[in-house]
Design a protein that fits this description.
It is a single chain. The chain is an alpha+beta fold. It folds into 2 domains: 233 residues, Rossmann fold (3-Layer(aba) Sandwich), CATH 3.40.50; 116 residues, Nucleic acid-binding proteins (OB fold (Dihydrolipoamide Acetyltransferase, E2P), Beta Barrel). 26% of the residues lie in helices and 34% in strands. It contains 10 helices and 20 strands. A 6-stranded mixed beta sheet has the order 6-7-8-3-9-10, with helices on both faces. Helix 2 crosses helix 3, helix 2 runs parallel beside helix 4 and helix 3 packs across helix 4. The protein is elongated. 37% of the residues are buried. It binds adenosine-5'-triphosphate. Adenosine-5'-triphosphate (ATP) binds next to strand 2 and helix 1.
């Protein structure tokens, strides 16, 4: 097992015309399960490949435990990687696929190798497949073999590169749990790359969010969800996405009045939440961010309500999503038994402790 320390990691391609990863700093603790998430092209795979030793870093350092592995060959790094496409040898049996790495990197006897493969196969529930070739296996079985192949090597670090992308939705959910169980059982430090924010949120002890090659935020899923550091993180984490509206702030008493820039509504944050900042924010523009579950229908109009029209009611079983005519796209998540009709005018309010204000210049969350 091992901690991982990344300092100022940078990766350029094509003579520096593409910067895939820039100034990345990470401290990962021994035994942690870290998920790395971000949109396509944000540098997730490049980061993982640099950690694995499959891609040299342009700048920066990587330590695994106390050892500087920045310039070490992949096979000397004590890491095992699970790929999206399984990367099994097609002509070898499951047993041979799982044993191959051991043969190459250890001097274990054939009996010891067999015992390790059997043990890992048992852990993954694939003992009965050991004689099969990969083309006889389903996608889920192949991924179990790929995981089993990593386990037998008993590495200090597991690296997962979107390992469940090729599986159907139901199997993905099962395999997520399997991987989590396995990681807990083995306690191996793990880094798991995915473009699926829900997967990242449910699996990670902590979640690393990248955008455009740069680290945006690292934190526990709940912390990142509730306190996004900037507008990008607020919008990327959570589904349906956080609602955003352009507003102008005015100090009123010890609170802040937020006026939608096209005059659609005014909403006043009380002094309890806006008091410390009301004069410093006054006169400035912001992007107000509010998650769909923090928008609530209300009966009486007031300083903290917005009058709006229902455009679409989207039932999802447990709740209803109301699409409202505020800004470009605005969704309220309400209880399933609240069912207004399209075209109805309703009053809504925001749970004020969950109102975010992002700076339009820096994107940073100022409230
Ligand atoms: P995805 O989710 O689509 O797999 P990603 O977040 O894993 O994306 P990377 O594959 O790490 O992103 O790519 C980061 C950036 O580096 C992208 O702009 C990509 O085009 C570029 N890139 C990646 N590999 C190379 C390469 N071998 N040569 C040139 N550019 C590359």
């Amino acid at each position: 097992m091992a901690s991982i320390t990344v300092r100022n990691l940078r990766k350029e391609y094509d003579q520096g015309t593409v910067v895939a990863v820039e100034g990345l700093d990470l401290n990962i603790q021994d035994g942690e399960f870290i998920t790395v998430v971000g949109p396509s092209g944000c540098g997730k795979t490049t980061t993982l490949r640099m950690l694995a030793g499959l891609e040299p870093a342009t700048e920066g350092t990587i330590h695994i435990g106390d050892e500087d592995v920045t310039d070490l060959h992949a096979k000397n790094r004590d890491v095992a990687m699970v790929f999206q496409n399984y990367a099994l040898y097609p002509h070898k049996t499951v047993f041979e696929n799982m044993e191959f790495g051991l043969r190459m990197s250890t001097d274990l006897s054939p009996e010891e190798r067999r015992d390790r493969v059997r043990e890992a196969a048992e852990m993954m529930g694939i003992e009965n497949l050991l004689g099969d070739k990969p083309d006889q296996l389903s996608g889920g079985q192949k991924q179990r073999v790929a995981l089993g192949r990593c386990i037998v090597r008993e590495p200090g670090v597991f690296l997962f590169d979107e390992p469940l992308s090729n599986l159907d939705a139901k199997l993905r959910t099962t395999m997520r749990t399997e991987i989590q169980r396995l990681q807990e059982e083995l306690g191996v430090t793990s880094i798991y790359v995915t473009h699926d924010q829900e997967e990242a949120m449910t699996m990670g002890d902590r979640i690393v969010i990248l955008n455009d090659g740069e680290l945006q935020q690292v934190g526990q899923p709940k912390e990142v969800y509730e306190n996004p550091i900037n507008e990008f993180v607020g919008g990327f984490i959570g589904s349906p996405s956080m609602n955003f509206i352009d507003v102008e702030a005015t100090a009123v008493g010890d609170g802040i009045r937020l006026s939608e820039v096209n005059g659609q509504f005014q909403y006043t944050l009380s002094g309890e939440y806006g008091g410390d900042l009301n004069t410093s924010l006054s006169g400035q523009r912001f992007t107000l961010g509010i998650r769909p579950e923090n928008v609530k229908p209300t009966r009486t109009a007031g300083d903290q309500t917005v009058t709006t029209t229902v455009e679409v009611v989207e039932p999802i079983g447990s709740d209803n999503y109301l699409h409202l005519d505020i800004g470009e796209e605005f969704i309220a998540r309400v209880e399933a038994d609240y069912e207004p009709e399209t075209g109805d005018q309703i009053e809504i309010t925001f749970k004020e402790e969950h109102v975010h204000l992002f700076s339009p210049e820096t994107g940073l969350d100022v409230l």
